[in-house]
Amino acid sequence: MPRPSGDAAPTGGNPFTALPNQVPPQNLEAEEAVLGGILLDPEAMARVADILHPDAFYVAAHREIFRTALALYGQNKPTDLTSMTTWLADAGQLDKVGGAMRLVQLLERVIGTAAIDQYARLVMDKYLRRQLIKVGNDVMALGFDQRRPLSGLLDEAEQKIFSISKERPQGGLVPTVEILTSTFNEIESRSMGDSVAGIPVNFY
């Protein structure tokens, strides 16, 4: 799976601050499945709007595309290909996300939206894991702060960890088997002649 160049893995000799050659948790296929799904079926936006926010996406272009979808959704406008392309172009962001062809690619990568909420929770799962890593580094830095009272440091560390738990989707994170089941059921519901190659998703 390609690794985005914008977010390199942390490096360094201190084992408490970095895991060499490790890429932060992310699932690009799940991100594409969400974005392609809302382009394919604008009504699917209602199923993910309360689960995800733009920062949950690992790829910067994906964040901008979802931010656009949220803006359209908030104005009761469809998130179809034409609407999304027009909004991004008017905002001067279309080239930054890869152009109109990138939106077409996302649309063509999906076969349906049956599992879009599960994909959204998978994206959120990876985001929360990245946040946990960030908070872990912050808490470690607090531990090295010898100038402040320990009680204050512990309170701040607790607040940082609690902030992550508050972002967890109310419905919880969905097991991989449920995503696979929904996807396979949708594939089987289509006739062989109408089948379209869909998005391959790696679960890890």
TrEMBL record:
Q: Which residues form the DNA helicase DnaB-like N-terminal domain?
A: 24-125
Family classification: Belongs to the helicase family. DnaB subfamily.
Keyword check for Methyltransferase? no
Q: Name one GO biological process term.
A: DNA replication, synthesis of primer
Entry keyword set: ATP-binding, DNA replication, DNA-binding, Helicase, Hydrolase, Isomerase, Nucleotide-binding, Primosome
Assembly and oligomerization: Homohexamer.
Q: Which InterPro entries match?
A: DNA_heli_DnaB-like_N_sf, DNA_helicase_DnaB-like_N, DNA_helicase_N/primase_C
Q: What's one GO-annotated cellular component?
A: cytosol
What domain of life? Bacteria
Reaction(s) this enzyme catalyzes, per UniProt: ATP + H2O = ADP + phosphate + H(+)
- Annotated segments matching region Disordered: 1-20
A Pfam family annotated for this UniProt entry:
DnaB
List, alphabetically, the PANTHER family matched.
REPLICATIVE DNA HELICASE (PTHR30153:SF2), REPLICATIVE DNA HELICASE DNAB (PTHR30153)
Q: Which terms does the record give in the GO molecular function aspect?
A: 5'-3' DNA helicase activity; ATP binding; DNA binding; hydrolase activity
Protein's name according to its UniProt entry: DNA 5'-3' helicase
